[in-house]
Amino acid sequence: MKIPEQRIKIALQKSGRLTEHSLDLLARCGLKIRQSKDQLFCFGENMPIDLLLVRDDDIPELVSDDVCDLGIAGLNVIEEKRLTLCNADRPALFDQIYALDFGHCRLAIAAPEGGDYGGLRSLQNRRIATSYPALLKEFLEQHEIDAEIVNLSGAVEIAPRLGKADFICDLVSTGSTLAANQLREVQNVLASEAVIIQTRAPLSEFKEEWINRILQRLTGVQQVRESKYVMLHAPRSALDQIVDLLPGSESPTIVGLGGDDDKVAVHAVCRENVFWETLESLKRAGASSLLVLPIEKMLA
Ligand code: PRP
Ligand code: ZN
Question: In this structure, which CATH number among 3.40.190.10, 3.40.50.300, 1.20.1540.10, 2.40.50.140 belongs to the domain 105-191?
Answer without folding.
Answer: 3.40.190.10
